[in-house]
Each structure stands twice: as C-alpha cells, then as structure tokens.
Amino acid sequence: MEVGALRELAAAAGEAAVLEHEPIALDGVAAGVTLSPADDAALAAALAVCARRGLPVLVRGGGSRLGIGNRPARAAAWLSTARLASECRVDADEGVARVGAATPLGELAAAARAAGWLSPLEPHGRGATVGGALATASAGPRALGLGRARDVALGLDVVLASGERTRCGSRVVKNVSGYDLAKLYVGSFGTLGVITAAWLRLRPRPEAERVLAAPAGADGEALALAAARAPGARAAALVDASLAGRLAPGADELLEPGAGGGIVLVELAGDAPVVEDTARALGERGARAAPAGALDALRELENDPAVAPLRFRISAPPSALARVRARLRAGGAAVVLHPGLATAFAFFALAREDEALVDAAWRSVRGALAGLDASFVLERAPAWAKSGRDVFGARTGTLPLMRALKQQFDPGAILNPGRFAGGI
After folding, report:
1. What is the residue extent of each domain of the chain?
2. Does residue 248 have a pLDDT over 50?
3. Band of the pLDDT at 175, cuts 50, 70, 90?
C-alpha cells in the first residue's frame, strides 16, 4: 500500500489502527497491512478512506471460519474487528442481549447462563466471535432447538463500505413494514457491511436435559428424522460409523456389528415430563444414555480441519436426506445428517494435491443433489482446490439479484471482494 494511503488511514482511524507487517495470505492472496480500528467511528473513517481510494479489504473476526469462502479477488489490507467493543449486556427480564461483534462466543454463553438464559450461538472454534458467527450464519447441532443465526438476530449495527454507520432492527420483536435488513447481513460473509454489534434473542434454560444415542441400523435416517421431530428435541444427528470413534470414548461401542449404519445422537431439553416421555419413546427404539460430551464432540468434529481436507455442507429437503446420504457414501464420503435442520456434512479424504480427486468429490456432491431443490457449500478445502471453482455452488438464477445487492451496498467492491457466491 502506498505511503499516502497509509498516512490518510492513520489520520482517519488513529496511528494504532494501522499496522504494517509481513504479508499474510488467504488462499494465496496476501496483504501486508492490517487495519484494526478501536471503535465504530474509527472503523467508519477507515472504510471511508478505503472506498475513496479503492482499497479492498479482507474482513477478519476471530478467524475460526476464515477459510470458508471463495478465493479473494484482490486485497490491499486486512480489516480486523478485534479491537471493537466486546460488550455483553444481558436483559434478564426480556431475554435479550446487546453484544459487541468482537465478543467471544464463550463470553456470551457465560453471561447468558449467569442471567438464567442460554446463548443461541454455539462456539465453532477457538477464538470464534459473535460478529463472525453472524457474518457466516454459523449453526451448530443445537440450532434445531436454539434457532439459526438469522432467527435470533433482532437488530444489528453495521458499517457500510462507504463508511456510513447504520442500524437495523431493534432489541424487541415487532411487526414492522419493510425488509428485515438484519437477515440480509447475516450470512453475507462481510460483503455488504461490517457487523459491529447485535441485539440477540436468548433462549430459556430448560428444566431438564438428556443426551441419548442409538445404533442407526438399516433405518437410521428414519430414526434420526423421528428424533428431530420429537417433542423437546434440541439436536438430532446421524453420524456415520467411520466418524463415531471421534465423538467420545465408548461411542463406537454403540455400533451394530457389521451394520455400518452409524449412530443417532439426540439431545432433549425442556420441561422434565416432556423430556422423560420422549426419552422413554426413543428408548423403545434402542436409544440409551450417550457417552459424556458426545454432542459437543460432534460440533467440534464438524469444524475440525483434521477430520478431512474437504468438507461440504449440504442443504436438502429432510425427506430426501436418506437418498442424499446413500449417494454421498457411494461416492466415498463420510456423512453426518441433521434432518431437523435439513443439513448434511460430507467429508472427503484427500491424500495429495490431486485435482482429479477434488473433481470426483465435486461430482459426487452434485450427483447426490441432482433433481432436488438443494444447495451446497465447500466449507473446507486447500487453496489450490478452490481455484477456478465457486465453493458456494450457487444457483445461477439467484446471482443477478445477489450482484445487484452488492452493487447497491458496496459499489466499489471494497469488502471481501470475490469471497461470496459467484465471486461477489
């Protein structure tokens, strides 16, 4: 970055907000400057300079989901939200929280629990922050009961690429006219604006909790779907046999010899009578107490880069997930199904840098979804495997609208250029 631009950024956002360093690369695109504004005003001032000078930035929160997205088109600097406010104010009477984007998810969870509530956002890696979870629409196994990021974000503070500071939604749920902009920003991967704070709807702490596990057998998909639809279900997943040993000590002992079907994990939460009635019904289908920590281990497994070099997240109708799973497994994938969330994760081995292996995995996923109203995202892959591919597997019919939104919110393509679907 030229000296004049560095000086202007330092004057706008403060000397401490501009750091020169050795280039740091994301999928092969490097930048040797990090902008780290101390507050919303400094962030707005820095972005105004970037917009005026045409300096594209790569937005970074805690970095736990930084690898998700297309290869950047270009970058002049990193934009870190680490120094923004890490506030977490819980209104215990209303069941809402005002949370800064830089707040670690663990800190939010602790504050909510201390006030008698639960955080709706599950941790998804070391250093994960509220801003990153919202920007990427992160959803863990418990999203079945806790809700998805778009459902729990009541209001957002957002700084646009122009430097304009905006606010959408509020701290309470209201019937209002007009488009819910919070739902637009959540899951936009920082390409439309930088989230700096949020009002979140918290979840009540349940009277009772139970985690059960059952061998999947031949009807594993049906059992998992029935469990997801059962009263009090907060999470329900079918985990392939090849992944069962990663859940918790003793989890693989639940596998039926020779069946290879996997394990169904279910978490129940709510009023004690409801939880007990559902647990009893599932017990009649072979469910019993799961090994301690099994569901948390599943969340970590789904985000662990050591599990497999290629990880696809697939969205498909719950009624089609059994067929999708069978096709993916035939293509060499290890699969985790979340039928209540209409989601599947497919993990593919990749022993070496081989384009043919990536092409085969790509074809396997597309083939598994053929003829379905479904979509996918390649959430984990080496940089070379992303080259020439749109990891979002975007449907071409939606791209014109998405490009129009990008043009409206960020006409200079300053924020995370190229990172979103269709190279937006």
Report:
1. 3-83, 88-204, 208-302, 308-410
2. yes
3. very low
What CATH number does domain 88-204 carry, 3.40.640.10, 3.30.465.10, 3.40.630.190, 3.40.190.10? 3.30.465.10
Q: Would the pLDDT of 252 be above 90?
A: no
Which CATH number is 3-83 given? 3.30.43.10
Segment (H or E) for 156? strand 153-159
Q: Class of 308-410 per CATH?
A: alpha beta
Mean pLDDT taken over the chain:
92
Quick check: 193 and 51 in contact, CB under 8 A?
Answer: no
Q: 362 near 314, Cβ under 8 Å?
A: no
181-199 pLDDT tens trace: 899 999 999 999 999 999 9
Look at residue 176 and tell me whether its pLDDT is greater than 60.
Answer: no
Q: Residue 16 in 3-state DSSP?
A: helix
Cα(195)–Cα(183) distance, integer angstroms: 12
- Residue 37 — pLDDT band, cuts 50, 70, 90? very high
Long-range contacts of 224-229 (CB under 8 A, 24+ apart): 224/264, 224/337, 224/339, 225/318, 225/321, 225/339, 225/340, 226/285, 227/264, 227/266, 227/282, 227/287, 228/144, 228/318, 228/338, 228/339, 228/340, 228/341, 229/340
Cα dihedral 374, 380, 384, 385 in deg (nearest 10): -30
Count Cβ atoms within 10 A of the Cβ of residue 403 and give its class: 0-12 exposed, 13-18 middle, 19 or more buried: middle
| Best mean pLDDT range from 240-254, 324-338, 385-399 | 324-338
The fold of 208-302 is: Alpha-Beta Plaits (3.30.70)
The answer to whether 144 touches 30, Cβ cutoff 8 Å, is: no
Q: What is the predicted pLDDT for the residue at 257?
A: 55
Q: How far lies 224's CA from each of 162, 192, 341, in Å?
A: 47, 37, 11
Give percent above pLDDT 90 in the chain: 80
Query: What angle do helix axes 321-330 and 220-228 make, rounded to 10 degrees?
Result: 140
420 within 8 A of 392, measured Cβ to Cβ:
yes
